[in-house]
Amino acid sequence: MRHSIPIYWRSRSSHYRLELTKCRACGRVSFFRRPTCPYCGSRDVEVITASGKGRVGLATKSFFRVEGEEEYLPRWVALIELPEGAKLLSEVVDAFEGVSEGDEVEAVLRRVSSDDPYGLIYYGLKFTKRVL
Amino acid sequence: MAYIKAVGLVRVGRYFDRSYKDLALEAIEKALSDGGRPGYVVVSSMMAESALKQLDIGSVLTEWLGMTPVPAIRVEAGENSGLAAVEVGAAIAEATGKEVLVVGVEKGTEYPTTKTYGDYSHILEWETETVRNVRPPDLAALAMEEYMRRYGVSREELTAWPVKMHRNAARVPHAQLRFEIRADAVPAATKISGSLTLLDMFPIGDGAAAILVSKERGDSPIQVAGAYASTGLRYYLRDDPLHLAATAEALQKALKLTGGEQAIEIHDSYSIYAYLILESAGLAPKGRAPAEVDGMEWVNVSGGLKARGHPFGATGVYQVAELFTLMTDGLGGRTYTGEWGVAHGMSGHDGNARVVVLRRV
Amino acid sequence: MRPERRAGIVSWGTYIPPRRLRAAEIAQLWGFAPEVPKGLWIEEKAVAAVDEDTVTMGWYAARSAIRRAGIDPSQIEAVFVGTESKPYAVKPSATIIGDALGVNTRKLATDMEFACRAGGEGIRFGIALVASGQARYALAIGADTAQANPGDVLEFTAASGAAAYIVGPAEEAAAEFEGVVTYVTDTPDFWRREGSRYPGHGEIFTGDPAYFHHIMSSVKLLMTELGLGPEDFDYAVFHQPNGKFPLKVGKRLGFPKEKILPGIVTPWLGNTYNGSALIGLAKVLERAEPGQRILVATFGSGAGSDAFSIIVKKGIKERVKKAPTVEELLQSKVYISYGEYAKHRRILHRNVGG
Known about the structure:
heterotrimer; B: alpha/beta; Peroxisomal Thiolase, Chain A, domain 1; nine-stranded mixed beta sheet; C: about 350 residues; alpha/beta; 2 domains; about 25% strand
């Protein structure tokens, strides 16, 4: 079994929905639900859920070959900027014409990892260029 | 602080017929050939669990070296395990008065590269990076993209580093890749991610390096004069991903000590990181490192991670052993006669950075 | 009053993957004469990517439905996923979609199998919950990554897609249920044994004894109970395994082609199994006028059919624009090769795991 059950399950609200941490002390917003602000160290933080809209800051087309990931290659990996003020790294999908700085994207649920053939499937958010 | 009494290292390469025990033994025998008697063993190996299926590698090595019951500990800080082990070893030497054997050993070739790359990718944060299918070369590729755009530097200009590293390593007996490369081979090599190719990236290999440190100087010519370490934010949390803040913090402290004059070994896991490290430390102006590296005589004389190689957990120990050698007997046909040697390492995209400063005494 | 009248379609949503495979390419590879796909009226089909499945497609369709409804997902108290392509044989897609959308933990949830019609049955369960006062909103999804043995004629049409319907009180609905009838018998026209990757089917047996008999039975029963005839309906949407069958069954029931064509999507989408009739219905809802009456007949092999009579209400037009439409999803496309299709749909034999 390659995929832990509780490790992903306990954070599924962050993996399924775009949860961000907003610091009440310094005002900064960071990706993922966390107990402390990574910028100022304060524990006075709240969780907000982002809209799912984003903008590509930087993107790369990856051919890096790790065992078990062959069927997902090549894939686009990008630094996504959210209007809520946080950034995150994500795959960009449906990128038929490539991915460039400034592309408007939207978060969608996809398989992120699958412990094939008999283990758990992890679902999470990737960003799509196909924004309708 | 502590003094380096002796060093030993093995040629970095692919050793299907030799185990980590064999390689460690060879490096250690060289380091102990002057009769050193370690009272403590500090081991660095990034992939001991994943490749060697070995926890508590320290007690296994002490037994195989015939050193039982000498205490042993393994230190891990991702790619930076080697310098972390030197830092810890020097501190134990100073605190206990014992002679400390620091040994870094790695077997990158026990499994096919597709598995080794997978284990190596765990240097990133699992739940916000790795599980989201982001891999270390992707971060270097993004940084490369931003660098070219921000400073108007072309992909061709970025080939200066790997060419220089291969030229240096060709003269270094223990380097893994002892051949020069042409600049135009770099962009034409196998694509890894974005504009980054195989020739912008460290090779996978096996290696072992050992140093013996002691609180007592004896006739040691080189002191471990300082060790600075810092952690850094994940790539996506940084306001400026091109500023390697942890590296800058550690290196700037070191350079205050050295006054800016030193032989230096930096963590060039990817070409772009070499430029960013130099610029983050103030050793080159922003956007200018690619143009200036050819003129830097005392940077990565070993050939760096690119061409000497990067046996992960052993690399930092190699760096310190190389600087010791460069400052004493000479390395690659050159001897550094200055006062200071600086070894820099980092893990991933500056997740943690450490700098060990050596001083001629 | 029929209890179904207390419930209606509050909103709907669909998902159609962008990748499309042309029927001509399948014909060429597998040695079918070009007249074969023409005879089925199938031009191309939608293909889910390697990281898409019933869960991800159902999620997108449901998210569109939630946006279109303007409701808080925590108000949804039932999630039904009708599918014959479950990512897990045991572990419901409904719970994953539910948590991913923020549906209330106090809810019913289940995945249901009845070949292509389980999505429709989910709507019936939603109606029952709403009409009996047990839930205010129920989410019924029909989604599939349809399977077909490579080289079998079914491969022309086996496609990927999803539709989602939020069933709620008639007062809040964009379209009300006037009546519904389900007709079911044991008729083995098409099946997939446990452990089998691809279905088996009875070829021409899937026609008259199965598709035609069950749809005609459910629709006739419905029209009799409601006292209606084909002239009373503005649209007739049928389960559509190919482009021709809905026109044929509609004709036999007395519906003119003009009422059937607007709900036909298969020629450019393929047969999305549990998405089939429900995506056709969504396409019609996205152009229907208040007061118009829509017949929807699902069909699932094994076999059964639901017939719904739906009356469109005022206010539907505003809801249409709040989420992607079937037309937009159909037009947003890119063509792929058979090789890419084989890779994405995992029909290539690979050593996996270990």
